[in-house]
Amino acid sequence: MQAQGKGVGSAAGNVLKLAAAAAVAGVLTAAIALPAVGGAGMTAKSGIDALHIGPEELDEPPLPEKTTLLDADGKPIAQFYYENRESVTLDKIAPIMREAIVAIEDFRFYKHGPLDIEGTARALVKNITTGGVTQGGSSITQQYVKQVLYNKAETEEEKAAAVAPTVGRKLNEIRYAIALEQKHSKDEILNRYLNIAYFGASAYGIEAASKRFFGKHASELTLAEAATLAGAVQDPNATDPNRGKSFRDRLIARRNVVLDRMDELDIITPAEAAEAKAKKLGYKDKPIPGGCEQSDFPYFCLYVRNEILHDTQFGKTQKAREQFLARGGLTIRTTIDRKMQKAAEKAVRKYVHPSDKPVASEALVEPGTGAIKAMAASRKFGTNRKKNEMSINVVADSLHGGGTGFQAGSTMKVFTLVTALKEGMKFGDGFSVGGTFAANSKFDFKDCKGNGVGEPTAVLHNAEGGGGFKSLQTGTWGSVNTFFLALERKVGLCDVIKTAKDLGIKRSDGQPLHEVQTFTLGANELDPVTLATAYAALGARGKFCAPMAITEIVDRFGKATSFKPKCKQVLEPEIADATSNILEGVFTRGTMTGVGGIGRDAAGKTGTGDVSRTVWFAGYTPDLAGAVSLGDPRGPVRYPLSGRVIGGRQYGSVFGASIPGPIWKETFLAALKDVPATDFVKPDMSRFGGCTQSCAPKPKKEHRPGRGDDDGHDRGPGPGDGPIDIYTPDGSPFGD
């Protein structure tokens, strides 16, 4: 009896539901019979009042569109997107595609109003009797409404509400649909629907889907292809061809359903339907365009991407900045120079192969603007370890997608040299030093908080002796460790650190600089962009310009925002001139003698870490600055460079002039080939010539160290390996 009673109650409930459904369907049918709503029919104001159905304006925010990166000449280099979409106008969509989508989704689309009365009424009856939405019955206009609401949703709750199986949501769709059809033509609504719809395989909109599925524009689709894409929109995840054979089989079956419907509606003939059904799926699986991994300039692309994601001027929150970049439909003009980029890539990969575990990386920066002209690395960017690809931006700091960087070695001695010149020392000033150095007490070196950081127990040494009197010139040319430790002690560690910071030096990992005794020897890990930018300030006569990658952003509406260099004079121009004059000698009388110069004014400094764990060269002209690093990203301590095969050549020892120096030289010869040479400004010899009280005991000839200098650089048997003149106390200029 209990079971029977339950059955009777259930049956009675269903009768009531059916009655209610019939009543509601009748009211709805009457309500939508208005000419402005359902097409032709009688007026039913009472029905509208009963259901409160009336037009409601739908906010249609711009669709997420791809962002395009351009080089300095306006040529595309990369794309970013949240959804792989390229919106197109209706005239750029094949007519057969329009017919296919209308046939399968809403064949009376051009005949009814904002909704299909018969379909909606039928669906509403079914939905009410089941207690939810189990049938669609939606017109293309309603489907477009749902897509807009879903795309606007920012939270998971809002997304769920946009597709919730409720009668309330369906009634809202109707209200929005009424307003839309008052605002837009049928063709415009169909166009918007085809641009917003998801087709599977990460393709949003008909143009992206056509390219992804078939490698062609939407205007070129054939009957079979159009039917395939029209069939995919119903349940794109269930027919996603990327997910395997069973999914592709379902897509073919769905395509054939579309073809049958087009045949039934006399859009195509039975013969045309049969011919299209006989065709294979033809899915091309075209790579999705965009993303830094597919860019020809992946490391620079990563730099730009992270520049936007970490700069609050592009959005107050991380999410806002991500949306700005990936959804904004922006055109971003950048600073990269294809000619200079090609020069850097060619030189880097000549000396270090993509298959090598050590990686060479190079950044080129323009003095006076900070514009990054090139970012190259020997290894390809990507996540395939079997192909030895790099998944971090080894050319930049961690803020721009990089890692921890490499110790910069003796390239850091330049900041001690600059500090000495700032504090009044002259070219001929110096010290008599030995082959080793040890602090007398920990207070020989003080950090910027006044703490003693000297290491009396640590005995630091030169690579090959190198004792005797060293001046600012000869100590720099020979890169004498003990001389620079003594010089750092004299001018003050904190002052050297402040000079380095003024010139933009910061650790690659974003941590505070290590303020230690060996700061001048390169105890901190840097990246090529940072070091090249610092040296560029010397080339710009003391004007530091922050690294710059973006020059202009044009939004989807054509509004352009320009970005100017952020520069500051951090050194007296005369200090920079004097520094450049000394660093010119590195090519002619110092550690780069065996490599040689580039036929125009150039200055630079080699750098080698302990036991050749990492090696560097940084150099500049008034027109371009560059820094090259070489190290093993698996860990320089565990994997030093000595005794390795690099670039197909066996090296016993590796120094700054062994690989980074030649890379820099070949890069600059090619990059500056058509750029008129600019000379350095000659130093004020009345200010910097000669010496004060710390000159050599008496003028004399001095022989340069042989192969290998005091920071461990292998100069090779260069043309200048004979006796050389040093500055004499009377101030006669060396090399003038």
TrEMBL record:
GO terms under cellular component: outer membrane-bounded periplasmic space
GO biological process: cell wall organization; peptidoglycan biosynthetic process; proteolysis; regulation of cell shape
InterPro entries: Beta-lactam/transpept-like (IPR012338), Glyco_trans_51 (IPR001264), Glycosyltr_51/Transpeptidase (IPR050396), Lysozyme-like_dom_sf (IPR023346), PBP_transglycosylase (IPR036950), PCN-bd_Tpept (IPR001460)
UniProt protein name: Carboxypeptidase
Coiled-coil zones: none
Keyword hit for RNA-binding: no
Compositionally biased residues, Basic and acidic residues: 705-716
Reactions performed catalytically: Preferential cleavage: (Ac)2-L-Lys-D-Ala-|-D-Ala. Also transpeptidation of peptidyl-alanyl moieties that are N-acyl substituents of D-alanine; [GlcNAc-(1->4)-Mur2Ac(oyl-L-Ala-gamma-D-Glu-L-Lys-D-Ala-D-Ala)](n)-di-trans,octa-cis-undecaprenyl diphosphate + beta-D-GlcNAc-(1->4)-Mur2Ac(oyl-L-Ala-gamma-D-Glu-L-Lys-D-Ala-D-Ala)-di-trans,octa-cis-undecaprenyl diphosphate = [GlcNAc-(1->4)-Mur2Ac(oyl-L-Ala-gamma-D-Glu-L-Lys-D-Ala-D-Ala)](n+1)-di-trans,octa-cis-undecaprenyl diphosphate + di-trans,octa-cis-undecaprenyl diphosphate + H(+)
Pfam families: Transgly, Transpeptidase
PANTHER family referenced in this protein's UniProt entry, alphabetically: BINDING PROTEIN TRANSPEPTIDASE, PUTATIVE-RELATED, PEPTIDOGLYCAN GLYCOSYLTRANSFERASE
Swiss-Prot/TrEMBL keywords: Carboxypeptidase, Cell shape, Cell wall biogenesis/degradation, Glycosyltransferase, Hydrolase, Multifunctional enzyme, Peptidoglycan synthesis, Protease, Transferase
Domain Penicillin-binding protein transpeptidase intervals: 364-623
Entry superkingdom: Bacteria
Species of origin: Sphaerimonospora thailandensis
Family recorded in the similarity comment: In the C-terminal section; belongs to the transpeptidase family.
Disordered: annotated segments: 686-736
One example GO MF annotation: penicillin binding
Residues of the Glycosyl transferase family domain: 73-262
